[in-house]
Amino acid sequence: MIDWIKTAPEVSDPGYMQDDDLRHRPEPGGKMRDSLFWQIIMPEHELGFQCYLYLTGDGRAGFNLILWGADRKPYVLELVQGHVPEDMDFDDFRLEGLHVRQPADQKTARISFKSEKVTLDYSFEGFHDQFSYRSNPDDLPGWFAENRLEQSGWVKGHIEWDGNRIDLDRIGHRDHSWGTRHWQAPQHWKWLVAYTPDASRIVNAWIWQAVGEWGVGGYVIRDGELVPIASVKQKAQFDERMMQTGIMVEITDTRGDTCEMEMERFGLVKLPTGGRYATMISEAACRVKIDGQDGAGQFECQWPVDYLDKMIELKAAGGI
Known about the structure:
The chain is 4% helix and 59% strand. It is mostly beta strands. It has one domain. The strands form two sheets. Strands 2, 3, 4, 5, 6, 7, 8, 9, 10, 11 and 12 form an eleven-stranded antiparallel β-sheet that branches. It has an eight-stranded antiparallel barrel with strand order 13-14-15-16-17-18-19-20. The relative contact order is 0.16.
C-alpha cells in the first residue's frame, strides 16, 4: 500500500461536506444526479476495466461494467438500467447484481458484481485527500456538476470472466460528481488518468470546451505531493472514425512546474447515448509514459454525435 500522499498547501477548499460520498437528494421540485466511477488499466494483460453508475433524484439508476482490450468487442459489457427506493444510499447500494458499499469516509469503496459473464470484487482505498476541480484556476463549470471529487488509490480484489481470473493489487482511480449535467453545453472534452506502478507519478487531467470557452482541471502527483494543474498543451491523434489513438500532453501546475505525458491506445470501447443531446463517449485503455516513466492510463473523449459524424465524413473526404 502506498503511503499517504500530501496535498500542496495552495489547493483551495474543495467544498466537500462530510457525507458527500453518499447520495445527494434534490431540493423540493428540483433535480439531482449522482455519477460514480471506478477503474483500473492493466497494460501487461492488455485490459481495461471500468464501472460507471448514475442515480437520479427520482430513483432512476443505471450502470455500465466493462472489461475491454485489443479485440474489437469488449470481453464484458454489462449495461443495466432500473429503479431504486428512496432510502437506498451508496453505503449499501444494490442494482441487478451490482453491490456498492461506499461509506461517508471520503476514502474507501467496495464494488462487487456477479453475472453469467463476470465476477468482480473491487476494493478501493484512496491515498490522498479527495480533489475537486473547484481547486483548479479554471474552476468547475456549472453545466457539468455542482462538485466533483477525483481520487487515486489502491485496488485489491479480482476479476473472473470466460475461464480467466486476474487478482488485483495495484493502483486505480475513482470519481464522484453530483448535480444536474447539461449535455447540450459541452462541445468536446478529454479526460485523462494515468499512473506509474509505484505512484511516483500520477496525472488526472480534464480538458473541456463548452460555450465558446475551454478550461482544464485535475492534478499532478510527484514523489508524494499533489499539486493542481494550471494549464495543458495537448496534441491528440485520431483514427479514421475519429476515435483517439494517442495523445501527448505538457502539463503546467500551479507552481509553474511541468510534466510531460504520452499515452498510446491498446484497447477501445465506444459508449454512444441517444436522445435529444446524443453523445459519444469513447474510452481508450493506454500504455503511458509520465516524465519518461512507464505506466498505465485511460483516455476518454466526449463528442456530440452530430459533430462527430460530420468530422468522420470530412476526414474520409481528405478535408482534415
